[in-house]
Amino acid sequence: MTADLSQLVKAYDVRGVVPDQWDEPLAELFGAAFVQVTGADAIVIGHDMRPSSPGLSRAFARGAAARGADVTEIGLCSTDQLYYASGALGLPGAMFTASHNPARYNGIKMCRAGAAPVGQDTGLAEIRRLAEAWLDSGAPASDATPGTITRRETLDDYAAYLRSLVDLTSIRPLKVVVDAGNGMGGHTVPTVFSGLPLELVPMYFELDGTFPNHEANPLDPANIVDLQKRVREEGADLGLAFDGDADRCFVVDERGEPVSPSAITALVAARELAKHGGGTVIHNLITSWSVAEVVREHGGTPVRTRVGHSFIKAEMATSGAIFGGEHSAHYYFRDFWNADTGMLAALHVLAALGGQDGPLSGLVAEYDRYVGSGEINSTVDDQAARLAAVRAAYEGREGVVIDELDGLTVTVGDAWFNVRPSNTEPLLRLNAEARDEATMARVRDEVLEIIRG
């Protein structure tokens, strides 16, 4: 019977419970398969602070070296630090992390040289097939000369590269609270912020993959409550929250109020357009209407895509876009090999805030023009049937525009909503937006009533 790794190998990465779903021997097979599929003669590997990460990472390195690849280990790092190493060194890479998942999980995010993503259609399915075959019969012997495994530090170079992309030397002094959630932000922030005119108030910087204070997922409002309180107590200019592998960054203003990732996307887009003298900006279809408006106002061309980093990165590559943003606080930069880095977005926010005298709430107001519902999940028995019911309820109405780029997006006058099925759970995800709270609430509740029957 052939092994089945379908529950472990997802659309964009490997992710599962250790040791129940995978362990070091399987990680070694993944390392060998990665080298065989990419044809790499050298790779770079990094890992987060989870208890299982060092062992899994080293096992992957052994598998890769056994197939003839020279392995550079950069040790503890954020995911965007691994992307930096892949881009700067010109090597395929593997990052061991399960991002914001609980401690018992771990995973691998893989990329080709220059941080180009490896997903189902770009090598991950083939890596899975090889690993499944080898689980049954063992990896065949390689006639390649075994590669070397060496260590290299990249944190200082990563920090210097990010600072070279955003000028923070002349900003006014700012007081910033950072909640690292016991994740990799506690590793990267001190070095990136070193020497800048910032008074840093650290929260939960101790690297601890058991996440003793709160889940390292700032997308859940419950996980930024501590940050909001501390910003107000400290009289800080802003707060920043990073997820477990520190590739996403969430922003809180001086009042302790969350700043919409769409507003951050619009703000950073305006800065990147000014820097590059125009260009294309990618945004997924869940981001606010304000993003496309701001991009056009600043001389850029907005391009709307499906949700998901593989779609964003593919569109970045084909269109030559200078920047891309998602509602989930993933921010992508052409100057960063089209990869996502929350840290670079944070530096842009700091530069914009420190370059003027007003508070962050006033600065972002011009980029935050609508009222959004946030993402609302509903468990359903039949995703397709409920989606069809929503479509039937709006189809044919005067002034209604429907498109199906990703799920169902319906524009109704001064409001819009999107309903998308989850790929992994029996859920429908609703996002709605309007010019005012009352209209948004009316549309949101009307759609939820249809979804939930």
UniProtKB/TrEMBL annotation:
- What cofactor does this one take? Mg(2+)
InterPro entries recorded: A-D-PHexomutase_a/b/a-I, A-D-PHexomutase_a/b/a-I/II/III, A-D-PHexomutase_a/b/a-II, A-D-PHexomutase_a/b/a-III, A-D-PHexomutase_C, A-D-PHexomutase_C_sf, Alpha-D-phosphohexomutase_SF
Its protein name is: Phosphomannomutase/phosphoglucomutase
What GO molecular function annotations does the UniProt record carry, in alphabetical order?
A: intramolecular phosphotransferase activity; metal ion binding
One GO-annotated biological process of the protein: carbohydrate metabolic process
UniProt KW keywords: Isomerase, Magnesium, Metal-binding, Phosphoprotein
* Domain Alpha-D-phosphohexomutase alpha/beta/alpha intervals: 7-132, 157-256, 264-370
Q: Which SUPFAM superfamilies match?
A: Phosphoglucomutase, C-terminal domain, Phosphoglucomutase, first 3 domains
Species of the source: Streptomyces populi
- Please name one Pfam family that this protein belongs to: PGM_PMM_IV
Keyword presence, Magnesium: yes
The residues covered by the Alpha-D-phosphohexomutase C-terminal domain are 375-449
Give the protein family: Belongs to the phosphohexose mutase family.
This protein's source sits in the domain of life called: Bacteria
